[in-house]
Design a protein that fits this description.
The complex is a heterodimer. In chain A, 46% of the residues lie in helices and 19% in strands. By secondary structure, chain A is of the alpha/beta class. In chain A, strands 1-9-8-2-5-3-4 form a seven-stranded mixed sheet. Chain A has a two-stranded antiparallel sheet with strand order 6-7. In chain A, strand 6 and strand 7 form a beta hairpin. Chain A is globular. By secondary structure, chain B is an all-alpha fold. Chain B is built from four helices and no strands. Chain B has helices at residues 2-15, 42-56, 66-69, 73-83. In chain B, helix 1 (2-15) crosses helix 4 (73-83). The longest helix of chain B has 15 residues, at 42-56. The two termini of chain B are 15 Å apart. The relative contact order of chain B is 0.19. The chains are: A alpha/beta, B mainly alpha. The A-B interface holds A 173-175, 177-182, 185, 199-202, 217-218, 221-222, 225-226, 259 and B 17, 41-43, 45-47, 49-50, 59-60, 63-64, 66-67.
Chain lengths: 294, 86
């Protein structure tokens, strides 16, 4: 079985990113979607091993037939291309229609003095949420992959300038942990993905879409270490220019033992993720062998 | 100092659930991280940070100090002795 490794970086070089942003200032995203669907995705499907991974996901985990799984594999790759285009469209200043379910839950937690943790996953397009779920009085700290392309980081910095968002890059010397802890002690929000094992190899095992899957221990450990409130935020694409953000509180018994707290919290996260993946099966973008099966 | 090292070993063992590690085997000079030592990782650091705060009232102000402090139980003990508030 392949290792759970993902480069975590946006495809393409700086030059390509710059031109994509320039182009997106003038053209409709749908033109690029069409170009991707006709010329780029078919080539990607031939050369990229993600094809087999996505196909097996639709076949075994979602339960589609052979033909439908093959078609959905194509749709899944087209959608992945679209969310990357959307990300650059956002850098280019394009606006998307955003609908939020559970916004009151987010607002409620921002009123508390304590910090809280926001867990995401690699489905849909989480980066869109960063620009929408922002609080004036509580700084949002987003954990990001340190090896991300400089152009992407620069564009993120530009987008986040003037907002209350801070990037914490995952560092090999573990200094990001101190930043996370400091932010939470200061009553801020820390946002991080909880579906990929990155850094610490420690994991939790859960039944997910009918088979055992590994989830990183870190995010759940960080949240429970100071018995903080936790939300999960999933952002799913609903149309060419629309997204829906689902904000869901993840309950756990804060008086239970740490191990039990971690178990309850991770179970609630996985249940919510499963619900959203079943709702939007084509927007699953973990292109590695996620499940422990033959 | 000897007592502090003993206390820290016990507190770290309990906080990190290191059931298989006996206190006698827990060498205060052994590196805490990496394959050659106790084998702790980044998540365990956070647990130790909170432990130091709860037990000794220490808040690490400078993240850059972290690497030097968390080299071994002995380096943690030295830091605790110099900075403890309780």
């Amino acid at each position: 079985m392949a290792e759970q490794v993902w480069a975590g970086t946006t495809y393409g070089n700086e030059w390509m990113h710059k031109w994509l942003i320039r182009m997106l200032r003038y053209i409709d995203v749908r033109i690029l979607y069409l170009f991707l669907a006709v010329f780029i995705i078919p080539v990607c499907l031939v050369v990229n091993p993600s094809r087999g991974i996505a196909y097996r996901y639709f076949r075994r985990r979602i339960g589609y037939g052979r033909l439908k799984s093959a078609w959905k594999t194509y749709v899944n790759h087209c959608l992945f291309g679209q969310v990357v285009v959307d990300k650059f469209a956002m850098y280019a200043g394009k606006k998307f229609k955003i609908e939020i379910e559970g916004y009151d839950k987010f607002i409620e937690l921002t009123k508390h003095q304590e910090g809280f943790v926001q867990l995401s996953a690699h489905i849909g397009n989480y980066e869109i949420a960063g620009y929408t779920l922002v609080c004036r009085d509580k700084r949002m700290n987003a954990l990001v992959f340190a090896g991300e392309k400089a152009s992407v980081m620069r564009n993120r910095d530009k987008m986040f300038a003037g907002t209350n968002i801070n990037m914490i890059a995952i560092q090999p010397d573990m200094s990001h942990l101190f930043e996370i802890d400091q932010a939470l002690q200061d009553g801020e929000i820390v946002s991080m993905p909880a579906d990929r094992i990155n850094g610490s190899p420690k994991f939790l095992e859960h039944d997910f879409l009918g088979a055992k899957a590994k989830f990183p221990l870190g995010p759940f450990s960080v949240a429970t270490i100071r018995a903080l409130d936790v939300l999960t935020v999933n952002v799913l694409k609903t149309s060419a220019t629309g997204y829906k953000i689902y904000v869901t509180p993840l309950p756990y018994d804060k008086s239970a033992t740490r191990q039990e707290q971690i178990r309850q919290l991770s179970k609630a996260y996985v249940a919510e993720l499963e619900k959203r993946v079943k709702q939007y099966p084509e927007q699953w973008y973990n292109y590695f062998e996620f499940w422990q099966e033959g | 100092m000897e007592q502090l090292i003993k206390d820290l070993k016990l507190q770290i063992k309990n906080a990190l659930n290191l059931e298989e590690l006996s206190l006698e085997e827990f060498d205060e000079n052994a590196p805490l991280f990496g394959d050659e030592g106790i084998g702790l990782d980044s998540i365990d650091i956070l647990e130790i940070i909170v432990l130091l705060e709860k037990e000794y009232g220490i808040r690490l102000a400078n993240p850059k100090e972290g690497k030097a402090i968390f080299q071994s139980v002995k380096t943690i003990a030295e830091y605790v002795q110099a900075n403890r508030k309780k």
